What does this fold into?
Amino acid sequence: MLRVLKDHETFSSVDALRSSSDPLPASVEAVLAGGWSEMPVVIDRDPPLHSRIRGLVTRAFTPKRVAEMEPRIVAAASELIEGFAVDGRCDIVERFAWPLPLHVIGDLLGLPREDLPELHRLSNDWLSLFQPIDSVERQIELAQSAVALQRYFYDTLQARVRSPGDDLMSALLEVRDAIDDPLSMVNVMGVPLDLVVAGHVTVTRAIGSALALLLDHPEQVHALRETPELLPGAIEEVLRLQSPAQGLFRKTTRAVALGGVELPAGARLMVHFASANCDERRFADPSAFDPRRAGVGRHVDLGRESTSASVRHSLGSSSRSRYRCSSTAFRGFGATLARYPVESGSSSPAATRASYLCGIHLRREMPSIILPVRQHHVRPLIRHRWRRPPRMSTTGGGGGRHR
It folds into this structure.
């Protein structure tokens, strides 16, 4: 796998997200022509353009910038938790798993909060367009969303040209203007778009997967509450077992032998990170969820550093840079675990539509969180819900009955 990932001259990243090499219908292409079909996304481009975009991001998206955001990330996680704690129950995906990373990325880019729900919808449509399994009519709608997303970021970057601010998009433009042979505006536009689409969608799934694993392993929840030092290992285990990015596609540029198989030029293959993360030659009992596992941080996950950072705040980088802020948001899940202990429940996540993604990201897939609320005490129970739950009562830890 590492051979494929490191050899871009033989295994091209172009169209790394597309599950099919078949062309889109002409009517869909006509809609996409209204945007910028040449706009690159760093994950599906080869050097030298990939290296130039990654270099731009590295210079603008500094560790110092991310470190300065952490207090705001913790505050955002706490604000979201307070918002549903008083309600007595919540849909954790709708109320926490997708708002948290999207708020973090939006703040980093300087985007208005009121724009985020629509960007969330457009992002999911963007990813769905790479999985051409819908009717032509639906693909046209997805293409319209893709163009709308491009126009949003193009217009926002143009606004930063006229009036720079203290945000990542302004920093990208400042760095671009300071280098020889600067990238075009269309090339720069792919960076914030990629951050919003890939960043928040993957972290949403990772938070959902983390909760699902905890529901299935209540003994690990107890261990994490008793020994918070285990939390980093638990997050790495979540990312190893349920990496949001399960794999990406590559295309051979020449005939090559791989694993004893002769591949012709032009062959498409999927590099499956999830398989490597469960390789019994590297991991003993690879299907087990074990936060104490030695060397757990060595699994294959392009955004591991940043994604694990996000989960820590949730519970108690280009690949690295691209994911750094959204994964920092994932850390908010640590605050949830610390304040609202998982006591019981089970889960069985539904499959996602995208062939290269894994995790729980839709409301119907996620357990409800039942929070029995008393005047001065919040003690949650997490209960599994696949459909709209019937009216029910739960008993808080002292006896009061709440509905």
About this structure: The two ends are 52 Å apart (CA to CA). Confidence is low (pLDDT under 50) at residues 299-312, 315-330, 341-353, 362-403. The longest helix spans residues 185-216.
